[in-house]
């Protein structure tokens, strides 16, 4: 590029943003389809994250690993996803949403199949860590896609549906494992087939994603106006007359630019800070609480693996209803309303569960668990939507990946470390400890989060 072209890049930033909005508003008839394709990928993540929890008993039976190896096998995907969220968000802004969308699912197909053929625990841990990288990357890329392909209001409802899809994925996973248990499959066959089956929905999603459009938007964002005009003319019979007929040099976004840009606008800054806090709080409350669900079931008389699966299925079926209702309520009560209600319900439910454990009223526990999950599927619904939505378009991949990092960090730490704390302080004290996280989220929703429903970044 010439020096003249480079000097023109800064004043034409407004033209770039205007052209991007024009393309999205006028030529995104598949926006809703793109949104559901992103949501469908969460089924794949749910399968991998939760299937391992119910087949670890069979993996332990075969390889007899130590506690450290077992913990790493369970938490490895979360650790990989932590790296994938940061790397994937940055790459999404750098090389394009579409290529990341396709690349992450291709990696998942290969790595999910590889799980089924590992020869020992070391390889299982390595494969599961690598598997987490495309999972973390896919979420950050998908949220960026939703915010750029759907209209205000619609994009927020769609983005908030990710918890509903997690619940559906969990129910499907548990249902398939229950069928395998009833069939009395050989235990080695059961865990290998269960882990490898994650490749099937991933392959279907990869096929459906193949024609997802983005090229003209991506070219405009990177100042390649000549190519953008040709592509837009071919695809939409529109030559993007608002853009000049020459290319400009556009500065590549960096994480530091993203953070500096956020600080310029107090609304976007406060909303993003809330998103990070909410991501951390909801990830912590769920990962810790979910750890002792099997212990809770044993306390009320559920002892078999099959019985554990069926009771968990019932709980997550109930949670799926919450995950569907929460996004539908968002236009009415706003993001603050969903956050306050969700964290408030979780806090009250955990306090009731702790009281039941302290007073030995164990019959209350299933109801407290149901209440906790209902609230969780509200408070977690918008923690990714808000930071991605309020970011400027050129930073949205980075913003989404940064937010997802705050989901995966506590998830990894909780799965890996919480069993030790649980054993050390006991069930009632552990439940009271977990209540700290929804309390933090509730205070953040009340005092930090401005109402940003329908917000449009400049």
Concise summary:
The protein is mostly helical and 458 residues long. It contains 21 helices and no strands.
Please tell me about this protein's structure.
- The chain is mostly helical.
- Helices cover 80% and strands 0% of the residues.
- It has 21 helices and no strands.
- The radius of gyration is 23 Å and the shape is globular.
- The longest helix has 55 residues, at 305-359.
- The chain has one domain (28-212, 253-447): Growth Hormone, Chain: A (Up-down Bundle), CATH 1.20.1250.
Key features?
disordered N terminus; mainly alpha; Growth Hormone, Chain: A; 0% strand; 458 residues
How would the blueprint of this fold be written?
Elements lengths: L2 H7 L3 H14 L4 H33 L3 H29 L1 H19 L5 H29 L4 H6 L2 H21 L4 H10 L2 H11 L5 H7 L3 H12 L18 H9 L2 H26 L1 H7 L5 H55 L5 H15 L5 H6 L5 H30 L1 H8 L1 H12 L11
The best one-word shape is: globular
What is the string of helix and strand elements?
Answer: HHHHHHHHHHHHHHHHHHHHH
Distance between the termini: 27 Å
Mean pLDDT: 83
Count of the domains: 1
Number of strands: 0
Low-confidence stretches: 1-10
Structural class: mainly alpha
CATH superfamily: MFS general substrate transporter like domains
> Main β-sheet: number of strands, strand sense, barrel status?
none
Radius of gyration: 23 Å
Q: In CATH's first tier, which class applies? A: Mainly Alpha
- Which bin fits the share of residues in helices? over 70%
Beta strand %: under 5%
Number of helices: 21
